[in-house]
UniProtKB/TrEMBL annotation:
<dbReference type="InterPro" id="IPR026875">
    <property type="entry name" value="PHydrolase_assoc_dom"/>
</dbReference>
<comment type="similarity">
    <text>Belongs to the dGTPase family. Type 2 subfamily.</text>
</comment>
<dbReference type="InterPro" id="IPR006674">
    <property type="entry name" value="HD_domain"/>
</dbReference>
<protein>
    <recommendedName>
        <fullName>Deoxyguanosinetriphosphate triphosphohydrolase-like protein</fullName>
    </recommendedName>
</protein>
<feature type="domain" description="HD">
    <location>
        <begin position="59"/>
        <end position="213"/>
    </location>
</feature>
<feature type="compositionally biased region" description="Basic and acidic residues">
    <location>
        <begin position="7"/>
        <end position="23"/>
    </location>
</feature>
<keyword id="KW-0378">Hydrolase</keyword>
<dbReference type="InterPro" id="IPR006261">
    <property type="entry name" value="dGTPase"/>
</dbReference>
<dbReference type="InterPro" id="IPR003607">
    <property type="entry name" value="HD/PDEase_dom"/>
</dbReference>
<dbReference type="InterPro" id="IPR023023">
    <property type="entry name" value="dNTPase_2"/>
</dbReference>
<dbReference type="Pfam" id="PF13286">
    <property type="entry name" value="HD_assoc"/>
</dbReference>
<feature type="region of interest" description="Disordered">
    <location>
        <begin position="1"/>
        <end position="23"/>
    </location>
</feature>
<dbReference type="Pfam" id="PF01966">
    <property type="entry name" value="HD"/>
</dbReference>
<dbReference type="InterPro" id="IPR050135">
    <property type="entry name" value="dGTPase-like"/>
</dbReference>
Length: 423
């Protein structure tokens, strides 16, 4: 495909030539699609736990939807669609049980070894923990993806110490690589300038934002947590504006969020009231589809206006998102944050989830490799020091699904009988 050099197709561990009916990037996508880490996302929280509702998205279904949005947007801009698809499918692989709440818990438990970050864990999975290829000296090369695909999957191409400063002067808590994964990071970032994301990574990032901004709202409405007509009430409207500013747009004028909310309400597809009927479900689906198109088309038009009509790949261009569109996307996320993620009713659940992960880490640390999965038990025995062993424990807990974390905690920490039954 135009825009890609032979070096973009190189793999960390060289592999012999294969049949030509698939491209190198198609193979990358297939390796991620068949990975155990992707399958586990089906039982990991997106916003609500997978066993709480049959409709709400899981991390897996969210990733599939992000891939669909990203693939089409990327292809329209000249990116190889399989690279973008692979990046989108992999973007949440590193998330631990219980979503961002679990991420916070594991970060607190690993401060002395470099912290925990879902995106850095994604790179660790792709380049180490998922098994496909090994170097001759026994080191894992993970799925051994191409340079272009690894670069595309890296949403935050910097270490924790190099994270950019936020408006308050503190460093962002987001980063994309742990210290002991720097060799592969340096390899696939060869030729990149500073902390610049590749074009394909930018498409993935935007597709993620667009997807969960509309889908989290749809899930919340279907689950009965709120209705969009509530926003006509001044108190509810103030709550959404405040949450949007607090969570996503701290330096933005509240009037701009108000204006974005008014623009969204003014679209003909805005569903103010949903009653659960097939007709209202169809209206909600049309709203999500039309808003995805609205946001994607705005970015496409703005990007083409700046960079022209040539294929836009790797480090040759940037995705341009109009300011009004950025605020509209953030406002949609703010609606979900106000009524779902920051709901007071969920705070005791969040505290319990953090307690489960904390106690599992403590158990595994105190018991050595006794309870670790054989994959991680081998890593524990090969670890050079306590820091490396601590990272193995964090890797193990991060790999668990919501249900296995609860089950392992019940049986191993609390000593309750194993309850899984087979029919």
């Amino acid at each position: 495909m135009p825009g890609y050099a032979p070096s973009d197709r190189e793999r960390w561990h060289p592999e012999p030539p294969k049949s030509t009916y698939r491209s190198d990037f198609e193979r990358d996508r297939a390796r991620i699609l068949h990975s155990s880490a992707l399958r586990r996302l089906g039982a990991k929280t997106q916003v609500v736990a997978p066993d709480e509702d049959d409709f709400a998205r899981t991390r897996l279904t969210h990733s599939l939807e992000v891939a669909q949005v990203g693939r089409e947007l990327g292809r329209s801009l000249g990116c190889d669609p399989d690279i973008v698809d692979a990046a989108c499918l992999s973007h949440d692989l590193g998330h631990p049980p219980f979503g961002h709440n679990g991420e916070t818990a594991l970060d607190a438990l690993s401060q002395d070894i470099g912290g925990f970050e879902g995106n850095a864990q994604t790179l660790r999975l792709l380049a180490r923990l998922e098994t496909k290829k090994f170097f001759d000296d026994g080191r894992s090369a993970g799925l051994n993806l191409t340079r272009a695909s690894l670069d595309a999957s890296c949403k935050y191409p910097w270490t924790r110490e190099e994270a950019p400063l936020r408006p308050d002067g503190k460093r962002s808590r987001k980063f994309g690589v742990y210290a002991d994964d720097l060799p592969v990071f340096a390899w696939f970032r060869r030729g990149a300038t500073g902390a610049r994301k590749s074009m394909e990574a930018q498409v993935m990032d935007l597709a993620d934002d667009i997807s969960y901004s509309v889908h989290d709202v749809e899930d919340g409405i279907v689950n009965g947590q709120f209705q969009l007509h509530w926003l006509a009430d001044p108190d509810h409207r103030t709550l959404v504006v405040e949450r949007t500013l607090e969570w996503y747009l701290p330096q933005t004028d509240p009037a701009e969020v108000e204006a974005a909310l008014s623009r969204l309400e003014g679209t003909p597809v805005w569903v103010r009231q949903a009653d659960g009927t097939r007709r209202s479900r169809a209206a909600l689906k049309d709203m999500t589809s039309q808003l995805i198109g609205r946001f994607s088309n705005a970015a496409f038009d703005a990007t083409r206006e700046v960079f022209g009509n040539e294929p836009l790949t790797r480090h040759e261009a940037d995705v341009v998102v109009p300011a009004e569109t950025e605020i509209e996307i953030a406002t949609m996320k703010g609606i979900a944050a106000a009524y779902v993620m920051s709901s007071e009713a969920r705070q005791p659940l969040y505290a319990r989830q953090r307690e489960i992960l904390t106690e599992l880490v403590e158990l595994f640390w105190d018991s050595g490799d006794r309870y670790l999965d054989p994959l991680f038990a081998g890593d524990w025995r090969e670890a050079a020091d306590d820091a490396a062993r601590r990272r193995v424990v964090i890797d193990q807990v991060a790999s668990l699904t919501d249900s296995t974390a609860i089950e392992w905690h019940s049986t191993l920490v609390r000593g309750e009988p194993f309850r899984r039954s087979w029919v």
